[in-house]
């Protein structure tokens, strides 16, 4: 079988307005969605990420892909369509980054454990539970689908510092 060519999508950076816009629910489950999900995984790996949400490739839809094992364990490859956090427990405070905010890393408080309900590429509902890094990735990516970035979840002071750093990089043509 010929290997299909997948498009590698460019990841947009803050302050692209698509990142601040809540994504639309996915209603159609067919080969196009499957292909988009495959392309999202490839685009994520290309960008050296462990999570990618559709708005980050300028597609304002509720789709996200996660692989906290970064290709090491196929079982950890998760595609979530229309995901929702249905339960959360505890707290964790760890450093976080984002492909749309390169070079910016800050500690973000998140739930230690979450349960998420989502549809797969065929439209079937399933649940996934995660703790530690997976819990963080699930919360971070679902935030993207609501137009929320991790810098929206840190103190005003730290956010201002991050924005100043971004401005400086923009000025130097590094952003
Ligand atoms: Co992100």
Provide a descriptive summary of the structure in words.
This protein has 175 residues and is α+β, with helices and mostly antiparallel strands. It contains three helices and seven strands. It has helices at 31-46, 132-145, 156-171; strands at residues 51-53, 63-67, 77-89, 92-96, 106-110, 113-119, 125-131. The strands form two sheets. A five-stranded antiparallel sheet has the order 1-2-3-6-7. The protein has a two-stranded antiparallel sheet with strand order 4-5. Strand 6 and strand 7 (125-131) form a beta hairpin. It is globular. 34% of the residues are buried. The mean pLDDT is 96. It binds cobalt (II) ion (CO). Cobalt (II) ion (CO) binds at residues 98-100, 140, 144. The site of cobalt (II) ion has 5 residues, from helix 2.
Strand order of the largest sheet: 1-2-3-6-7
Strand content: 25-35%
How far from one another are the termini?
40 Å
**Pattern of helices and strands:** HEEEEEEEHH
Share of helix, binned: 25-40%
Biggest sheet character: 5 strands, antiparallel
3D shape:
globular
Rg from Cα: 16 Å
**Which class of secondary structure composition applies to the elements?**
alpha+beta
List the topology elements.
Layout (H helix, E strand, L loop, with lengths): L30 H16 L4 E3 L9 E5 L9 E13 L2 E5 L9 E5 L2 E7 L5 E7 H14 L10 H16 L4
Antiparallel strand pairs: 1-2, 2-3, 3-6, 4-5, 6-7
This protein binds cobalt (II) ion.
């Amino acid at each position: 079988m010929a290997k299909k060519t997948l498009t590698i999508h460019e990841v947009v950076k803050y302050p692209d307005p698509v990142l601040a816009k809540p994504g639309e629910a996915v209603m159609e489950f067919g080969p196009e969605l499957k292909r988009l999900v495959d392309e999202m995984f490839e685009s994520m790996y290309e960008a050296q990420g462990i999570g990618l949400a559709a708005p980050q490739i300028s597609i304002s839809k509720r789709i996200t892909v996660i692989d906290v094992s970064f290709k090491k364990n196929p079982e950890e490859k998760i595609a979530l369509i229309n995901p929702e956090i249905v339960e959360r427990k505890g707290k964790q405070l760890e450093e976080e980054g984002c492909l749309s905010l390169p070079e910016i890393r800050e500690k973000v408080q998140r739930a230690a454990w979450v349960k998420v309900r989502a549809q797969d590429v065929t439209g079937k509902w399933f649940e996934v539970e995660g703790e530690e890094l997976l819990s963080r990735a699930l919360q971070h990516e679902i935030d993207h689908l609501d137009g929320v970035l991790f810098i929206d979840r840190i103190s005003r002071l730290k956010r201002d510092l991050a924005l100043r750093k971004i401005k400086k990089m923009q000025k130097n043509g590094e952003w």
